[in-house]
Structures are given as structure tokens and as C-alpha cells.
Design goal:
There is one protein chain. The protein has 253 residues and is of the alpha/beta class. It is built from 10 helices and 8 strands. The protein is globular and about 50 Å long. It starts with 30 loop residues before the first strand and ends with a helix.
């Protein structure tokens, strides 16, 4: 049953704003959509199912063609169409970045979208907009999905870490996951999701700051706890990658 506005959500289950009510009343999220049925997408589906979240997974193939692999990874998850997945309270993009432009942007209007994609030219081909160091890749995703509420997260852990290293809150060796976005309520919502999946959410600032945990950065692929992750993010601009990005942005400015 869809929640009412009194619970901080719109009638369709998406977060409501301007209500004066904390939109992350537990349990949040009620359901999760994953676009992408590769190793990362299925690992996230399995984590969400284990956390008691209803999960739907979509891919470029018809639901019938991915149903077996979805069931094998997360027996309670459902194979679905992208249109069905886009109705979820939160949607994670876990598909090749180059395929985001093939999505129907209108389906994601008003949707809280977690961008877990990364730019790999070997896989995606050379895409100039994603090679521009003056912007983060998630800012480009936001341009492709202009009506969505895009938050960068869940992109910098390895598939192995997602599959094997999730831990309950309070465990000493719990890994951290950075979260970057332009709206405070969305940052808090995605942080709540990250926590339920088994990782410590670390606020990284606005969407542009997603650059600090993209490929070729120190945090990307690192198994870091919360303190280590904060230290890595803090010293980004002193790193080799940070200096390269800084010079590019200075030229743009």
C-alpha cells in the first residue's frame, strides 16, 4: 500500500518535500529498483533483499531473459521492465555508463536515482562529456536525466566488496561508502539506504564532489572504513588526480 503524505511520502511512495516531516521515517526505502543485471546490480539486489527491501531488477533484455539470474542472486527479487523499476521509491543505476543515454528520461522524472555507474572508455567508448574533468560523471548523468534527483554513491566499492563485505552497523571493520548530491533530503535518504545495505555512509558534498571517488582516485576500489574514507576524501585535492582535476577546473573558471 502506498504511503500517505503524512508519512513524508507522496501517494506514489516517492519522497515528499515541503511537508515539514522527516522523509526518512523507517523503514526506508520500502522498495528499490535496480537498472542493470550485471555483477554489481545483482549484488546490490541481494543486499537489499537481505535487508528486507522489496527489489525489482531490470536490464536491456526482457524480464523473462534475466529472471533466472536475478532469482539465483536474490531469490525474492523480481525481474521487471525499466518502466516498472522506475516506479520504485529509489532507483540505482548499475548499468554501463554509456547506456544511460538509452533510457527514457521521462520515466525518471521526480525519481530519486542513485548513480552507481563509472566511466570506462574501454567499455563505453570515448564519450567526450565524460572525459571533461571540469564536471563529474554524475553531473553528466543528471543532464541525461534532467527530471531525476541524482545522487552519486555505491560506485567505488568492488563487486567483491558488495558481495562479501557488508556488515551490520557498529561492526569495527565496516566499510564506508561516499554519498554526493545537491539536496540534503536526498543525501539523507541515500545515506539511509547505504546503511541498510551494510555500509557506513560518508557525506562527500554536492554532486560535483562525486569526482573525488570516481575511477583513478584513491578511494575508488579501496576497502576503507569511515575514518579512512573521510581522510582520503579530504586529501583528494593534494593527490595527483586532484591536481589534474584542479588544473582542468581552473582553466574552465
Amino acid at each position: 500500500m502506498a504511503r500517505s503524505r503524512a508519512n513524508g511520502c507522496r501517494g506514489d511512495g516517492r519522497l515528499a518535500y515541503g511537508t515539514g516531516v522527516d522523509p526518512i521515517a523507517p523503514p526506508f526505502p520500502r522498495d528499490l529498483g535496480v537498472v542493470g543485471a550485471g555483477r554489481v546490480g545483482l549484488a546490490l539486489a541481494a543486499l537489499a533483499e537481505h535487508a528486507g527491501i522489496d527489489v525489482q531488477v531490470a536490464a536491456s533484455r526482457e524480464p523473462e531473459r534475466i529472471r533466472a539470474q536475478v532469482h539465483a542472486a536474490a531469490p525474492g527479487a523480481h525481474a521487471a521492465t525499466v518502466e516498472q523499476v522506475a516506479r520504485s521509491q529509489v532507483v540505482v543505476l548499475a548499468l554501463p555508463l554509456g547506456k544511460v543515454r538509452t533510457l527514457d528520461a521521462a520515466m525518471f522524472n521526480g525519481v530519486l536515482v542513485v548513480d552507481a555507474t563509472n566511466y570506462w572508455w574501454e567499455l563505453d567508448g570515448h564519450l567526450p562529456q565524460f572525459e571533461d574533468l571540469a564536471t563529474s560523471s554524475s553531473e553528466q548523468v543528471q543532464l541525461l536525466l534532467p527530471g531525476a534527483r541524482v545522487v552519486k554513491s555505491l560506485n567505488h566499492l568492488s563487486a567483491y566488496a558488495l558481495e562479501e563485505l557488508a556488515r551490520p552497523r557498529g561492526v569495527a571493520d565496516r566499510l564506508a561508502v561516499a554519498v554526493a548530491g545537491d539536496h540534503e533530503a536526498d543525501l539523507r535518504a541515500v545515506s539511509a539506504l547505504v546503511d541498510r545495505l551494510g555500509f557506513d555512509p560518508i557525506a562527500a558534498g554536492p554532486l560535483a564532489e562525486g569526482m573525488r571517488f570516481e575511477p583513478q582516485t584513491e578511494l575508488f576500489g579501496a576497502d576503507a572504513d569511515a575514518q579512512e574514507a573521510r581522510e582520503i576524501l579530504d586529501r583528494f585535492w593534494d593527490s595527483q588526480r586532484g591536481r589534474v582535476v584542479g588544473r582542468a577546473r581552473s582553466r574552465e573558471g
